[in-house]
Write a structure and sequence with these properties.
By secondary structure, the protein is of the alpha/beta class. The protein contains 16 helices and 11 strands. The chain is globular. Bound molecules: nicotinamide-adenine-dinucleotide and magnesium ion. The site of nicotinamide-adenine-dinucleotide has 25 residues, from α1 and α6.
């Protein structure tokens, strides 16, 4: 029996992970389930799955969960805070860790999983974007097995030769990575109308049902920018070797081009249970409950180049990676702040990219060799981006708009 810790089990990826595990109860058992403050959600999962540990990041929520479990499932140990998350990511009972917390909050527990040599199934791209080299070093030094769950990176991984792990991309004949993107809900919205779009419109993704933060990132294509950076670290390459291709149907999840002209792609219905099952089963395959791809129903696949004016965040991500050091830490932190403010209705959709751009211009890039340096850069960028958000918010109408 393989013990699985799910960091962020109440979220979109967490719930899909439990769905795949429910089809293979003979293979996988949850060691720990965790959430931020969704007490009812985690309580229900605990009663169904009976993990050894349950962790709530929020201490008050942890107390409520403990009360809720006292009579119904007294054997489950309830932990709290970042320490609790790190403990269950690293504990001896855990073999695999699904890293599915959203944003920078996932860094410390995901890093703890890597440092303890676990199989790390990475959905939490922000953790890798903010800590790049440090995270990859932790994986290598501790013999952790890092498997991408992000659908594009999972596709690329599936299209890479096995030797890619030991040799460089040119050595194994790879010339380019083609990263597909749906283009999100505003792919064809008139540019002049983007100022007025609401958070609910931004979260209504045409092909994927995801958490609200990543949904906004998909609309701005900052998600693709973060994914370009994620791919650079996962596959030891540079942004020049990664081309973003808009593919509105989300059937091809990414492609790998080889020196001989071959281009390998991974296809499937847009359902995160496929990459989740692949990460759980690798190097084998398991039923994921996913509907079979019907090419006759799909009928046509389309491709287009992203428009830099519509999607300025893509260029900002490339610029942040090129800056090296804490550049991508700053990018991620500024984006998290701006997206949170947009989701609260305090700034406009079209303010997100300028907040990130101004933060990148104002906060100095430093070396990113230690966790302290990374967390310091994260804090600096949050303060700077927060200041810019207040200025935009005042222009917008003081944050009284209710989205
Ligand atoms: P979500 O918002 O649905 O779920 C987030 C989970 O993290 C929840 O369980 C929540 O309780 C927990 N969480 C939130 N803040 C926390 C905090 N401060 N401390 C501890 N736990 C916290 O998000 P999601 O859509 O499942 O995305 C999770 C991650 O996976 C993100 O990094 C996202 O970019 C990535 N991802 C998601 C998808 C998708 O289809 N949803 C696809 C690819 C990658
Ligand atoms: Mg993705």
């Amino acid at each position: 029996m393989i013990g699985v810790t799910i960091l962020g089990s109440t979220g979109s990826i967490g719930v899909s992970t439990l769905d795949v595990m429910s089809r293979h109860r003979d293979l996988f058992a949850p060691v720990a389930l965790t959430a931020n403050n969704n007490v009812q959600g985690l309580l229900a999962q605990c009663l169904e799955w009976r993990p050894q540990y349950a962790v709530m990041a929020d201490p008050d929520a942890a107390r409520q969960l403990r009360d809720g479990l006292r009579h119904k499932a007294p054997g489950i140990r309830v932990l709290a805070g970042s320490d609790g998350l790190q403990e269950v990511a690293a504990c001896a009972e855990t073999d695999y860790v699904m890293a599915a917390i959203v944003g920078a909050a996932g860094l410390l527990p995901t890093l703890a999983a890597a440092q303890s040599g676990k199989r790390v199934m990475l959905a939490n791209k922000e953790a890798l974007v903010m800590s790049g080299q440090l995270f990859m070093d932790a994986v290598r030094e501790n013999n952790a097995c890092l498997l991408p769950v992000d659908s594009e990176h999972n596709a690329i991984f599936q299209c890479m030769p096995v030797r890619q792990r030991e040799e460089s991309l040119p050595q194994v004949g790879v010339t380019r990575i083609l990263l597909t993107a749906s283009g999100g809900p505003f792919r064809t919205t008139p540019l002049s109308a983007l100022r007025e779009v609401t958070a609910d419109q931004a979260c209504a993704h045409p092909n994927w049902d995801m958490g609200r933060k990543i949904s906004v990132d998909s609309a701005t294509m900052m998600n693709k920018g973060l994914e370009v950076i994620e791919a650079c670290w996962l596959f030891a390459t540079d942004t020049d070797n990664i081309e973003v291709v808009i593919h509105p149907e989300s059937i091809i999840h990414s492609l790998v081009e080889y020196a001989d002209g071959s281009v390998l792609a991974q296809l499937g219905n847009p359902d995160m249970r496929t990459p989740i099952a692949y990460a759980l089963a690798w190097p084998r395959r398991l039923d994921a409950g996913v509907k079979r791809l019907n090419l006759f129903e799909v009928s046509q696949l389309n491709f287009a180049q992203p428009d830099p004016e519509r999607f300025p965040c893509l260029g900002l991500a490339r610029r942040a990676f090129a800056a090296g050091g804490t550049g991508t830490t700053l990018l991620n932190a500024a984006n998290e702040v701006a997206v949170a403010e947009f989701l609260k209705g305090r700034i406009r959709y079209t303010d997100i990219a300028p907040v990130v751009e101004q933060t990148l211009s104002e906060v100095a890039v430093e070396p990113a060799d230690t966790l302290e340096q990374i967390l310091h850069a994260d804090q600096q960028a949050r303060a700077c981006a927060g200041g810019h958000c207040r200025v935009f918010s005042a222009k917008f109408g003081g944050g009284h708009r209710n989205h």
